[in-house]
Amino acid sequence: MKLVLKQAGKYAKDAYLAMGLTAGEVLLEILLPFVTAIIIDDGLQASNLSVVVKYGLLMVLMSFVSLAFAAAAGRFASKAATGFGANLREAIYNNVQTFSFSNIDKFSVPGLVTRMTTDITNVQWAYMMCTRMAVRAPLNLIFSFIMCLIICPQIAPIFLIAAVFLIIVLGTIMVVTIRIFNRLFDRYDDLNASVQENVSAIRVVKAFVREDYEDKKFNKASDMLYKLSVKAESLLAFNNPAMMLSVYFCIIMVSWMGAELIVGGSLTTGDLTSLFSYIMSLLMSLMMLSMLIVMITMSLASIRRISEVLRETPDLHDPENPIYEVPNGDIDFDHVNFSYKHGSGKNALSDIDLHIKSGETIGVIGGTGSGKSSLVNLICRLYDVDSGDVKVGGIDVRAYDMEALRNQVSVVLQKNTLFTGTILDNLRWGKQDATLEECQAACRAACADEFIDRFPDGYNTRIERGGNNVSGGQKQRLCIARALLKSPKVLILDDSTSAVDTATDAKIRAAFRETIPGTTKIIIAQRISSVQDADRILVLDDGRIDAFDTHENLLKTNAIYQEIYESQIKGGGDFDQPA
């Protein structure tokens, strides 16, 4: 709770002003029935018109001041709540940016979206209600009870009995429903996941005529959400009957006891009228409390989910005195063990002992799940090893400033993304101040210039969200060009030419030899043709090094490499080469 409320920040002043103005509004409203009693007893019953006019004008003035307080309180409360919500979204977003891959793995994308939309909206509304209703309702109850004590101490305990009854009932409902709301918001994640997956893969859904299946999957998630919502709302529905029971109990008891006191002469007609006004005030307060209970119950579940993200701290940290310069492209793995869940005993990589010289071109090949991507993720420190050391330029990667390391170890991942904007905008992710000439040179090396020049707007061609208006091969070449703009010491291509034909793939590798001869190049591929010209080829199997040698030697000595070679080359060749 403290972690979330901390985000109120500079808007806390507006919240306090809203509370203060609401308190003033309540005080004036509480005094109005008291003035009404004076008008009835000293004005109307005494036939004193001057008292009626005098106190009538006072009531009008108090009403206008109360209205002004209410309007100002509403404005400050809205400003505070909206600012609080904006701060929460910014805090979550900024914290997510600091996450390492292992942190990100703990949260689903739909889960983060739900937290930044539905959950924050719930908290925002609850915060605004708390700055007003949480002040107004209790003050109304307290002041009304005090006024009842002043007017008629014999009747006042009736209100206390009703209040205790309501606290017990509402408290019980709140404890039960908060558990349901915790499950309810988790189901929102499932619903959002279903929508996101369906929309992002709509082409596949239609290609395989799976609309009915997707409809059933969505309906299942929606139905579960419906059932939990009904269950929670059914329990919350007891709020109103409990509240009305308390109010009618108060009205009946005040009417009965008040009539006896008026007959006995210890209570005036004006006082009884005031007591009924205070009952209505209590009614409104109890209604507000009922609404507040619902919002707080929902927001507590949302606060828990938001706090999970805000409490998450990055697993990877820069050292106290980081190194900012990578000397060269040497890469060393010293008996490295790595698992995605530390201590699970399920290693993605086991006893990796590997040494690569600066400027070498290294091919990496192996079956699915052999640990190829896990290996290169450790070089740019997207994850930390469980044991052993990974060194770049002869220095442990944990000794570098992470930003400096990743600027010098450029990675083109399997699933690279282009962002909305022009081609130039996307290329300059690699180097913010890159000139047009530098971008063109990088695109020539990545063989991207040949299709860019065919676009009417060239490098100013607009890229749609996710790069949907370019082909897979074009997207990969733009991502390679973006990585080259960093002028890295190490360039890693993680199966990033899979959508490119072999002729273009060969051109890209030839361009690398000419344009970045001093850069260490690690090429992960499924095709033998993509790695056979490398200085050495690393064969991985089940997270272990099976062999590390040249293409010619591996063909003679390594069974895995021989099998891959036989299936691809002698089995018919690559998809765009003749057998």
Please characterize this protein's 3D structure:
By secondary structure, this protein is an alpha/beta fold. 63% of the residues lie in helices and 10% in strands. The strands form 3 sheets. The protein has a 6-stranded mixed β-sheet with strand order 6-9-10-3-11-12, sandwiched between helices. Strand 9 (490-494), helix 17 and strand 10 (520-524) form a beta-alpha-beta unit. The protein starts with a helix and ends in a 9-residue tail after the last helix. The model is unreliable at 575-579 (pLDDT under 50).
Radius of gyration: 35 Å
How many β-strand stretches?
Answer: 12
Oligomeric state of shown chains:
single chain
The spatial strand order of the largest sheet comes to 6-9-10-3-11-12
The main β sheet shows up as:
6 strands, mixed
Mean pLDDT: 82
User: Overall 3D geometry?
Assistant: elongated
SS-based class: alpha/beta
Helix content: 55-70%
Q: Count of helices?
A: 20
Strand content: 5-15%
Low-confidence stretches: 575-579
Which characteristics define this entry?
579 residues, alpha/beta, six-stranded mixed beta sheet, four-stranded antiparallel beta sheet, 20 helices, 12 strands, elongated, disordered C terminus
